[in-house]
Amino acid sequence: MKLTSFGPANTIARAAETHPLTWRLRDDGEPIWLDEYQAKDGYSAARKAFADMSQDDIVQTVKDSGLKGRGGAGFPTGVKWGLMPKDESMDIRYLLCNADEMEPNTWKDRMLMEQQPHLLIEGMLISARALKAYRGYIFLRGEYTTAAKHLNRAVQEAKAAGLLGKNILGSGFDFELFVHTGAGRYICGEETALINSLEGRRANPRSKPPFPAAVGVWGKPTCVNNVETLCNVPAIVGNGIDWYKALAMPGSEDHGTKLMGFSGKVKNPGLWELPFGITARELFEDYAGGMRDGFTLKCWQPGGAGTGFLLPEHLDAQMYAGGIGKVGTRMGTGLAMAVDDSVNMVSLLRNMEEFFSRESCGFCTPCRDGLPWSVKLLRAIETGNGQPGDIETLLGLVGFLGPGKTFCAHAPGAVEPLGSAIKYFRAEFEAGIKPVTPGSLTQVATPTMAGA
């Protein structure tokens, strides 16, 4: 897995002042254990937070920094922290790290956990102090066996050093941290489904409200944050708000840096820590090196399989939530995928929708029935057996499974790439529709909804 800096192809060395997430990384890719982490200023932010800052000060610092969730939704972290109850009598609180990284084409959290497990632990320690959480869980994708091994070792190192457990740093604050491996379900990326799974229940999303900040794990106040989000906390506490805000490029409404990447048939696929506001063209050309010889960029996704497709002319969009929003989709996880001109979009979408259909928890009807329906239609179109009206039916499903129409965000994310693919490459879908011949006309059932 490749990691470079702000400059193309490793021309500029990573530095603590510009690369809060990656400056400590070893060139050989080996994990950084406690002694090396502390030699590289590790846990200094935690010591500052415990010695010089009140719990409310930490929350306010994170809120004022503008840090947003890095799992894809982009909700302001400090605002989320502020939802936790102020009642001191509610002394049982939980901090959960969402490490169920199952978004196709996303692997950024894996790198952080495998190579810098103590950065995540320090981020959780500071966050737990701010939230008054006495216990934390890292809910880890079951397939991340190396990450689990490294995290468990790092937890034991931190315990032995008095950085986890009882009376941390002589403060009287207790915090226990556990690594919990899940059974491998995409839906566990939704925070309430994650909570259900952690409790040993079926991984279905819960109705909200109540939100986890009020009623979370085992009915207690709970905060759920993504791995990359928590890994930003030590640098914010250690270096301050002004420094953090200055990291982003001019014009970006999001602050700090982001782990971004490009995969597909590009010359230099990889993962880089870059400032918010860099253009997708810079990411694609300067870092990923453009397309391999013999291939042409057909379209691209900006942040995982659940984001809409964009065309080459959209590469000048800035990589932050608002910048990508201006061209019609979402920033998502920030790990882009290049689709080359040899790929048939119908086949690509059929493959994607099969994944999303399989990973549906099946709780709500639109998702449970709508996604398999889209797969059935796409399979027919892919084999040239599509019927007149099938494309209109697919577009109807895109509308009926969109935001606000289903119990959680799984289905809206699943159909966003489908809608954009039909928008930009409708001819490829039309090519799979059987021509109408005398006697072949059948009644076409198109989804309808009263008031839609």
Question: What is the structure about, briefly put?
Answer:
The protein is built from 16 helices and nine strands. With 452 residues, the chain is α/β, with parallel strands linked by helices.
Explain how this protein is built:
With 452 residues, the chain is of the alpha/beta class. The chain folds into 3 domains: 21-244, 3-Layer(aba) Sandwich (Rossmann fold), CATH 3.40.50; 257-340, Ubiquitin-like (UB roll) (Roll); 345-430, de novo design (two linked rop proteins). It has helices at residues 34-39, 44-52, 55-65, 77-82, 108-115, 117-131, 145-160, 191-198, 227-239, 241-245, 280-287, 321-325, 345-359, 365-382, 390-400, 410-430, and strands spanning 3-4, 94-99, 135-140, 176-181, 222-226, 257-264, 270-275, 297-301, 335-340. Strands 1-7-6-9-8 form a 5-stranded mixed β-sheet, with helices on one face. A 4-stranded parallel β-sheet has the order 4-3-2-5, sandwiched between helices. Strand 6 and strand 7 form a beta hairpin. Helix 2 runs parallel beside helix 6 (117-131), helix 2 (44-52) packs across helix 9 and helix 14 (365-382) runs antiparallel to helix 15. It is globular.
